[in-house]
Design a protein that fits this description.
The chain has a two-stranded antiparallel ribbon. It starts with a helix and ends with a helix. It contains seven helices and two strands. With 156 residues, the protein is mainly α. It has one domain.
């Protein structure tokens, strides 16, 4: 028996849990892929949030122009757009937390050394994604606040 076979046997013995044997991957490729994908998600989420919010602002461009023409300030428009965007983000974070809570048994078997609902991890992820989402929402909000009402209302 060579060293690789002994390592596989040791890993199988260590990972035996409730009559199920969780085998380690033969190579580290799967672990690298999961790590890469997990690291890519926070970088990809602002693009989706920005795209959805920019689309919603474009759909409401005439309404925003009318608000600005009637005396609304840029700060009020920014507040309106940020509230709409952060409401969507809050729904997403709530759904993510509910999913994590519902899948905690599966998560416990997949993550070594971290409790499924570890407050530090859940809080850190929530704060990180919340800050990223705030920045992604701020760009369309700033653009909406600088709409020229005359130009927009003349378009139609």
């Amino acid at each position: 028996m060579n060293a690789l076979q002994r390592n596989d046997m040791a890993a199988d013995a260590v990972l035996a849990n409730d009559k199920q044997v969780w085998k380690m991957p033969a190579s580290g490729g799967e672990a690298i892929q999961v790590t890469r994908d997990g690291g890519w998600a926070p970088l990809e989420s602002p693009d989706g949030i920005y795209g959805v919010l920019a689309y919603l602002v474009a759909q409401r461009r005439r309404e925003i122009a009318i608000r600005m023409a009637l005396g609304s300030t840029g700060a009020a428009v920014v507040k309106l757009v940020l509230r709409q965007g952060l409401t969507l983000v809050a729904v997403g974070l709530t759904a993510g937390f509910a999913g994590a809570a519902g899948l905690q048994k599966v998560i416990a078997n997949q993550i070594y050394g971290v409790r499924p609902l570890d407050p530090l991890v859940i809080g850190g992820v929530t704060v990180l994604l919340g800050m990223i989402a705030l920045l992604a929402c701020a760009m369309p909000a700033w653009g909406a606040a600088h709409v020229d009402p005359v130009t927009v209302l003349k378009e139609e």
